[in-house]
Protein 1
Amino acid sequence: MISINNLTVEFGGFTLFKQVSFIVNTRDRIGLVGKNGAGKSTLLKIFAGFQAPTAGIVSLPNEIKIGYLPQQVNHIDGNTVMEEALSAFEEVLGLEKEIAEINLEIAERTDYESEEYMKLIERLTDRNDRYHMMGGENIEAESERTLLGLGFLRSDFARQTNEFSGGWRMRIELAKILLRRPHVFLLDEPTNHLDIESIQWLEDFLKTYPGAVVLVSHDRAFLDNITNRTVEISVGKIYDYKVPYSQYVVLHAERREQQLKTYLNQQKQIKDTEDFIERFRYKASKSVQVQSRVKQLEKIDRIEIDEEDTSQLSLKFPPAPRSGDLVCEVKNLSKAYGDHLVLNELEFVIERGEKLAFVGKNGEGKSTLVKVLMDEIEYTGTCKLGHNVKIGYFAQNQAQMLNENKTVFETIDDVAVGDVRTKIRSILGAFMFRGEDIDKKVKVLSGGERSRLAMIRLLLEPVNLLVLDEPTNHLDMKSKDVLKEALNQFDGTVIVVSHDREFLNGLSSKVYEFTNKKIKEHLGGIYDFLQAKKMDSLKELEVKNTVASVQVEVASSDNKLNYLERKEMSKKISKMERAISNSEENIARFEEKIAEMEDMLANSENIQDQSLFAKYEKAKKDLEKEMSDWENLNEELELLIAEKGE
């Protein structure tokens, strides 16, 4: 599908790729890996046609459609969420408009026997066939299914896109790309703004998708569950492994070990040759040998290896000051923003030494509860911290609170104590600050770099309760390993809000699920929780199937739709009722037209008129389809009324 041949990319004298070649096949699931700055995002941009290589050829057939999701998107305002999702079906919407225009013209014309009229009928038939082949009647249902899978509520569909945060707007862009059904998906960190349930939905979608997928992700579990091929970018070269990420890690370690041995042998050979040249450079009797060694040195294809792997760095938090056995006690805690209730009468306790994971769909109150714990917002009920509890808090806005006029090194040196001060460069290296990076001023750092720096500061503070809100969004896999190991060794209490299953695996001993304004406690790790959730979902499905016929009568008050959802449902019901009314008008028109043609066919003079027969048969088919559509619309209306509870 896509092939690159002898690809070279250079930036200001720095070579990012050197004569790289490989092919993306039809059903490939490729994970692009490599350290930050290796060129993963650049390669996706080149595939998508947004960047040209310095040299080499990128080949793909003209009919191939590319779906590209970058890390940053320029959003356009003026549409609702559903309208923006439906914009993915540009061709279908164009056909829909054209069909409506043709139908209007046909309804107004009476020259049934003219050549122009027959051409109009043929054009309508062609457009209808294309419309149905492209699934035109299902685009709203497809859009709804995709938006719900990515975490949106039905009540969100009619909201303007500019009402949503950047993360949610990225979900809208992802939905549009999925709905376009391209031949190749190019996804750059698609899970950064998704919760665990949305990530699992996206995994299921991509696993069964008939096209190719090329993605960049720091979510190890996501890569393992989707990819069947791992392409590593290292010092300008491509290493292609026909295995998922976890198997790649093992093969990569073996290759690196062999590469290092070869590199050391070559370095010894180079040094011996250089020593010989230097030693005998000015001896006439050795001039031939010296010149031979010089040429030999020039011909050597020097082996390059990536920077030293820092994933084995052992980083420890300072000993946690001892707190009381009861770290936090919550009773009857509720929080609402205006009329919107987020948390309702929560009750739980957190004990010293626990490592908890807060999970659930976005908007269910995880970050709100964190802000309550930090005493940043008002609430009702009680949230009482235990004796001598000292909190270390990480959130995205922490990065904006750093002193912009200090360097990266100074920022960490200010809080480092004891032996840690001798390891500052190694610690910074583990979090992707290397070489000249450590002398940069904070004010010139990107948002991601600031977040990583804020995380390092937190690692060095003497606290006994760590509260981390999405700590891994800007970390690569090695940095996440360093952080996870440090948290596992931390002797205090930890609360982590995260969607990264692999990061939470082996870290959390208890999972708090946020759902329906409450929290449910699940003992065990994150994969125990996920396994139980899948079983719960199956049980819920069975229950729904069993009681479907009496669902309206037995619906409990807890399942009543809130005001906004009822308002949105009322809009849908009104829209459906208008569609039914329009359909009934079409049926009446078709029946009238058929009756007219039956009268004409009853006349013996018209019995041989083939064009009249064709129009008659076409009208009957149109009526049959309209009747079917009318029945489907009425069924959908009944479901909507039942869902609303009227």
Note: Residues 163 and 334 are 25 Å apart (CA to CA).
Protein 2
Amino acid sequence: MKIINQESAKSVPVSVLPLREIAGFPVRPGLYDMNGATLLQDGVNFTVHTHSGTACELLLFNRGEKDPYAVLPFPEEYKIGNVYSMIVFGLDIGEFEYAYRVDGPNDPGAGLLFDRDQILLDPYAKAVTGQSVWGEKQEPGCTYRARVVKNNFDWGDMPQSGREMSDLVIYELHVRGFTRHSSSGVAHPGTFAGILEKIPYLKDLGVNAVELMPVFEFDETMGGREVNGRKLLDYWGYNTVGFFAPNTSYTAGLEYNREGTEFKNLIRTLHENGIEVILDVVFNHTAEGNEKGPVISFKGFDNNIYYMLTPDGYYYNFSGCGNTLNCNHPIVQQMIVECLRYWTVDYRVDGFRFDLASILGRNEDGSPMNNPPLLQRLAFDPILGNVKLIAEAWDAGGLYQVGTFPAWKRWAEWNGKYRDTLREFLKGGTWAAGEAARRITGSGDLYNGHYAGYNSSVNFITCHDGFTLYDLYAYNEKHNQENGWGNTDGADDNRSWNCGAEGPTDDKEVLDLRFRMMRNACAVLMCSRGTPMFFAGDEFGNTQLGNNNAYCQDNEISWLNWELLKENEDLFGFFRFMIRFRMNHPAIRRDLPGAVCGLPALTVYGNGGENRVDDGTAALGILYAGYDRKRGRDDVVYLAVNVYWEDVNIQLPELPKYLDWYAVVNTAGDGQSRFCYRCGERSRVDSGFRMRPRSVAVFTVNGNQ
């Protein structure tokens, strides 16, 4: 017999024969250290574990049927420790689905919820049935089940990416929303295949990493409601059903027993085009909710192990979603590590962004830990040695760890302080100038002890959670009425500005200002030390009509309207230019060897001159300089930001006589809708420069592209 679907164990000989028969099937004890269901040459290995359960049954179903056609109790002698394992011979994986039942004590006050009649999904299922058609709820009485997946995908010999975090430009997108709108022009809207069709667009834009919102199997129909005639779904997907299974409703076609093939093809093609793939993973809670929620999997196997429980058996809710995974319990740790290894090896994923990652550092009683074992284990795991680990360094329980997240020089963070500070400063909050300077230059005050500073900070002004970039400068207040909660959901602290009119307007002056503010945000983001990230559609002014919490909006509110790409072509061109500009100037991204011209590596300028930034600084300057060995010349960039509502005269740093300043970017434009200038188009600038109100300018020296 041979194992034929394990990436790391292809063609490993396993000489085994049936030893007995159960329910008419030849069986024998299985491979106990191989969790889940594994296809062998002549059968399937089923391995599952429960700490407090007293008996376990394997259920086999014909595809789509409610009742099992076979029930195979695990013999007691097929249990070692807390692990049940059995090889079942003669199975055709295309003809069945499987699940489990686990018996044991039922004492909710002690956190024990065993029910011998409850059908349970395998926690290690590689494919989950029941939600293959987006938005269609399972029929009453149906339960989640799993399929056995045959893994024969050919990855070729492409090496793993070795890019530094600071060399990435991350593009966050929702798999469905990216191409679901009719204007996307793809043949398979709302799917992995739809994204594949847009790879030429991503290359043209210039991003080299996509961060996909949750792609693990989730139930978008949970909590479904109707508001103002719209069907609302759990669109974002932050309610995981199965951690090892791709969301089958994101595929263009059915993939029975080869689930993940379309997604793998997308990842391989992205890699071939120089684009990394980062997954947004949700290990802080599951779709099972609190004591009122369904029993899908973990509650039935070991509720008191997988979840943080109060002394009387209720669920701690540090996630804001009903329950909290008990991440630092050894059994849960093992599952998370195996999960991340699986996606790294079998899907060749380049990184993971951990939703509400501070929960991963809480003890079983909910208290924060100084050295959380899970976070340390992930930081030093050999298989995960080159993948990016990015923490959303806060949770819904009030734990905020931006700049203090346990990192071991491996974890980067979504820099929420960058977002908040730059939003405040760019709309005219001069009192934030000093902190804005620190954020733009890599947040060294937060990350010097972590991961070389600029490799720790993921800088962003927008993401899926909150206003889009257009809405940030079109709305003073959130407008979430369509969510059905009376506009009470979503953040109130948006630090936004409508530029003089709330929402849609025909006022040209207001619109011109909005687009200038968007260009300002883009220019500063791309000229900041750290890793820039922005939300899909920001590059062409996509709007959610003021909704800053569109988690339930599977409609035009959330879907990217690609017609805006044509309408706002100039904004797209500006984003594309700034991304390339960043890539062409390593002095922005990291410290270089000393510049031949003698300029310092990094200098901040304020109203009072060099390194003099105070609460009244309206015009902020950042100088980057160093010797670029690759090009054999100095790389010099000066970023100037005027957040004042009037013109401001700035003095550019003094250069050696053989160098001159050239204007590369002016977000206020030249009066002819030109905001950026390529080599040969740039104009030489004397030491003084007059900045228009609320504008950003970028300068380089002769020889710099």
Note: The longest strand covers residues 97-107.
Protein 3
Amino acid sequence: MLKNNLGFPRIGSHRQLKKACESYWSGKTSLSELIEVGKKIRIENWKLQRELGIDLIPSNDFSFYDHVLDHSLMFGVIPQRFEVLKHLPEADQYFAMARGYQQNGFDLKAMEMTKWFDTNYHYIVPEFTRFQTFKLNADKIISEFREAKNEGIITKSVIIGPVSYLLLGKEKEEGFDKLSLLDRLLPVYCDLIARLVNEGAEWIQFDEPFLALDINYQTKDALRVVYQTIRKEFPALKILLATYFDGLQDNILAAVNLPICALHLDLVRCPEQLEEVLPKIPEDFTLSLGLIDGRNIWKTDYQKVIPIVEKAIKTLGTHRVMLAPSCSLIHTPCNLENETKISAEIKDWLAFAQQKLIEITEIYEVVVNQKIECLTKNQASIQRRQTSTLIHKPHVKTRVAEVKSSDLNRKSSFLERQIVQKDILNLPLFPTTTIGSFPQTDEIRAIRAKFKKGEISVVQYNEFIKLHTQKVVVWQEELGFDVLVHGEFERNDMVEYFGELLSGFVFSENGWVQSYGSRCVKPPIIFGDIERKTAMTVEWSKYAQSLTQKPMKGMLTGPITILQWSFVRDDQPRSSTMMQIAWAIRDEVVDLEKAGIKIIQIDEAALREGLPLRQTKRAAYLKNAIDAFRISASGVQDETQIHTHMCYSEFNDIIENIAEMDADVITIETSRSQMELLEAFAKFNYPNEIGPGVYDIHSPRVPSVEEMEVLLLKAMEVLPAQNLWVNPDCGLKTRKWPETQQALRNMIEAAHRVRERVTEFA
């Protein structure tokens, strides 16, 4: 029985990759130094997995920015606009595709970025044209295979399957289907496989996550063609096909009839699929059991998963069963041993990536070698968590259970509220604002670190934050913003900040997970019932509002996003935890209104991210998510304007649900997609106000006035001018001040130009 791992965190246990990339981008270190950091991380990861007893150790799961972008480079899928950078080192071309490029007379927009299925990981979207060609560049995957081989490790190369790779991309021209490119792409895959086999590869893992989604016959047939072709050309190759994030369901027959050697199932997200799959498994077909949660950080209950292993063994035999995490472990932190400040009681309940691999080995030892002591130790931890007095608060559960209709609804309709709000706020056409945060400089981070270490007093810290807040308020007024923000300098993270002020949360020191590129997040851990202990943002918002006569937005993170961007307790339904957070946010919204804040933004950047991959599961999630938002937002009077913000979301299939949120203003990402996302709002005749992002903050590139003006004019083609706001597409925390200042100056100027044009036309 083989122990199989699908992927391991690539950022390094102390974010070495993030630091190395950012140092290289800023010109402080060389490309060779960056490459060496990557190599060191890879070798450490491979050796660690070998030491922990993993049999199938992955390679090509490492990336300097994004694994989907790596595949685009590997297959020559480079947008035409980047051809002018051929004179640069390949790494600089690669980073330009991810981040944009604005130097040496060039001004190239970054490729689009969107969420990886229902995770908070963002991938770079491949761009396909009708006459797309493919050309193999296997240097990265081959060199990494050789690196591991030199360490005495024959790895299992991880490759996105050709069907899923095409489906992850976007047609940049009308009138063709990206799957029609398969005939051109498949020979390149075969060339790649030939090179890996020639290097000594025995296993190759093809990730085809779309098999866990609702797919049509055309897609199923494409999968059949792909793997029949590969099997015909490489009859001795051991192919492991990996699915994850949901069950196969109606795709079971399509999967088990493929000519592969092993099939991986996510038995955490969909444990019931094993019953359906087992009777249909062909002879000599191996099943990889995804038993260990690759998306969360709780210890696995061996008593629950061992019967699953034994059931599979009874049908297939020990040699036809693999033990594995449910998906790649890039969605979990590296090593729990790096945590020194989590209480011993709670730490006893947790498992990070390294510990999850230990769990695989221990389950193997219990099942194969009858090492009952592993089971006994595990069950003691599980029992301690179940009986802990830290977790449950009856009064919190009672409040969630007693929701009334009035808790879910504003007092008046949007059209009635809009009249009141326009009269009170007196904003011009195309009001300008930002999403909330401003750059967090090294100086701010250093002061926060000193405060947390007790090296400066709370008075000193608050005075420092007040000074920066005052500066940014004055700067926004000078620039001409219509609605201001306080900059959020007191906040370390849009979720962690609130979690630290709510009960039921605990925080890691080094629990970093990659979000995109060099951007890492440290998700809070929700272990118990949640309530607001004290006001969280009111004093900072009051202070900022006292500095200006213009409206100052109160800035909050919404219940769905706090839930999605945390490691959530698994001992009660996620919807129950979401509602607990909603009531805590509602209390804060009401207090902000009492403090005189007229505009309150409740960010729901992750609403789409939480949408189940299967259509049949979506209605229940959307009802819970919309109810949670409405609970958080509906405690205020008509004159208080509620904003929300959503990141990188395709809205076409959930636009009615977005409207049901009944936010007065929604701000969304539209700059990388050139306003394409607005079509859904236009077709639906979305009634409320919208701020389509005209400035991509995920790139250091500064868009011109003309570029943003064009985007606003595009927005006006599909939406009423009186309902449009002007803003960046996300918060500015991760950007540098010089680029931020210039981009926002250009944005304000673009708004003024369009405002004048509309006035002249009228």
Note: The radius of gyration is 26 Å.
Protein 4
Amino acid sequence: MIPQSFIQDLLNRVDIVDVVGRYVPLKKGGANFMGLCPFHNEKSPSFTVSPTKQFYHCFGCGAHGTAISFLIEYSGLGFVDAVKDLAQGVGMTVPDNDDKIPPAQRAEYQAKSLALSDVMTRACDFYRQQLRAAPPAIDYLKGRGLTGEIAARFGLGYSPDEWDSLRGVFPDYDIEALVEAGLVIDKSDDNGAHRKRYDRFRHRVMFPIRNTKGQVIGFGGRVMDGGEPKYLNSPETPLFQKGSELYGLFEARQAIREAGYALVTEGYMDVVALAQLGFPQAVATLGTACTPIHVQKLLRQTDQVIFSFDGDKAGRRAARRALEACLPHASDNKVIRFLFLPTEHDPDSYVREMGADAFEQQIQEAMPLSQFLLKEVIGESDLSTPEGRARVQFDAKPMLQALPPSGLRLQIVRSLAGVTQSTPGEIEALFDLAKPIARVKVAPPKSKRMAPVGLERQIIRLLVAHPRLGAELDDDALRAVAHLAPDQAQMLKQLVDAIRDMGEQASFASLVEHLREAGDGFDTMIAEIAAETESEFELVQIEMSSAVRQCKIRAVDEELQRLASTNLGNEELRNRYRELSQYKEMLKRG
């Protein structure tokens, strides 16, 4: 777990304008910067970035957050990866309680990663230059209906038909980084002695593979003359793991948001051709089966994923593997569907023959995950016999166990129960499903904490926007709020404890990250603050002092009324009444 102090220090060092500006063109507009929102399609800028708050906010779709949030939402990175990416940019090393690697070894690893990344970038530039003077490769791409514009967008290139063409790029052709990056192969004799080094990719159209930050981490090379293998991929390297990366995801991110879904295909050419034909939201796995990591990456980008497979047996097998990879991440607010084309078509050929509208119709009619799962487990089983129904249940069991407890799982359980002449409760008991839903009474949802109102809300809101004001909040003020609004006392205490833990360097952005999991009350408030114009801190201090004073006066008034109702029958009560009256007068004078 990354310490909160590190997150705070990181957000104090990075500039959100620089971070967002790497991906979104920004223009100065008053105190803030403006641009077109990257999270929804718009023609007029409604996306603002505040250098003061170190926060972004879109007035169109409501998206908002810190530099960390931006990388998570825009690049599809996980929280830890987003923090590491930002930290690397400002020369910080993310502490990890579980990381036992000595600092010197970690520094060596980071230097090696940078060297590999540099090697891949230089090789990519070389292949792109070679394409311009390679008529066979140009003719091949034109024959597939691709334009120069689309080739440039995906950085397509050509590896010359030579054993060591990269020697012209790397005069020191024997450096280890070329082997570790998978660009060259060392040939050894039977005794293990080194004999010869040569380029891995020769006479192929080159498809650079980028990670979510746009860095080239690998290549796919396609033959043009019917040779084998048809596609040659980079091997696994420190930069490139096939089970974690998706071809075209970097290029497709904005299109995925605009389309509302990601289309997963089976190959490089499908992705590039579909982008040419009006479907730039396509991505592809990299010569390997779809993995849960692939699914997780896609569901960070969009709430709907559609897998497109050929209708032959190989396509069905690939679809089954994709289904199994999806199950752990299936949920009630995500849609996963499966599209099967006729056996004679892949997406590229289907669109060219049938047209974009026909392919769009196929996408709209794709089979939902629940339907495909049932179709797979039923297979050829004879549902008219007990044996056939038992076989269906046997095949369904591991799949339903892989699904998280949810309304979707309950619906599939009900459907399975219907076709196997069982009850949902019997299915859950037979399969020993975690957190059964059908056979137990569902507990009522916990009541949500109400968003604060009135003076108490004003104080909490000011503290979130300007954590430095925490120094102005004494114990009397905390007791006053707790007395007047007991349901908000915990919220205020949580906020004040966080601010005190963060110390003098507390800022709006770092506090937001601290409160990320705190609940709806804070999230609504954060969105409101993000949309506000900047205020002078001196004016904010006055507003806070006034609100605190009024809160204390109200608390004193309530206690005075309570004392008065006792008729002040003893000296202790009378003394307390006098003390409170004097305290109230002092508060009124400010």
Note: The chain has a mean pLDDT of 85.
